[in-house]
Amino acid sequence: MMAVLQRVSEARVVIDGQVAGEIGPGLLVLVCAERGDTEVQGDKLLAKLLKLRIFSDETGKMNHSVQNLDCHGMVGGLLIVSQFTLAADTSSGNRPGFTGAAAPTEGRRLYDYFVAQARLAHPIVQTGQFGAAMKVHLVNDGPVTIPLCVPALPPSH
Predict the structure, then answer these.
(1) pTM of the model
(2) Residues 6+ apart with CB under 8 A from 66
(3) Which residues neighbour 41 within 8 Å (Cβ) at sequence distance 6 or greater?
(4) What residues contact 136, with CB distance under 8 A and at least 6 apart?
């Protein structure tokens, strides 16, 4: 499973002119399930992004996680958006291939699982809509953009 995290001062997802999800300071999480991924990869990815220290402390050093944005214990939001195009293969030709992404049914199942686990672990979670045409608006803070990848386990023989 992979994600691109963007530290934001605000972000929202708009679908058909309506705001589907919106946060203030926190993380925009673009997430993609890959072929062979299971809940294990989702759990590891979530644990990592919740603890990743990419928010500045009072000295400007990246020392706080989304769970503790400042020394007063403020919690940041998560805006989780499905993004199968993260699995793009651009190694040949000019049109990316997406065979590395999980099949749509499995991708939706893993995305829904990831969101459910995020809601159990974190108080502020908003989402887009799996498979929808979305407009994502964000103010990238920094800018700080971090790729995360938790590869699927190789099949056992």
Answers:
(1) 0.93
(2) 26, 27, 49, 50, 52, 55, 75, 76, 77, 78, 122
(3) 1, 33, 150, 151, 152
(4) 11, 12, 13, 14, 28, 81, 128
pLDDT digits (tens, 9 = 90+) for 78-134: 999 999 999 999 999 999 999 999 999 999 999 999 999 999 999 999 999 999 999
Nearest CA to 148 out of 61, 32, 36 is that of 32
- Report the C-alpha gap between 101 and 78 in whole angstroms: 23
- Whole-angstrom CA distances from 23 to 43, 48, 63, 80 are 22, 20, 21, 10
Ordered domains of the chain (ranges, CATH): 2-149 (3.50.80.10)
- Point out the residues that are catalytic: 83-85
Q: Within 10 A of 147 (CB to CB), how many other CB atoms are there?
A: 10
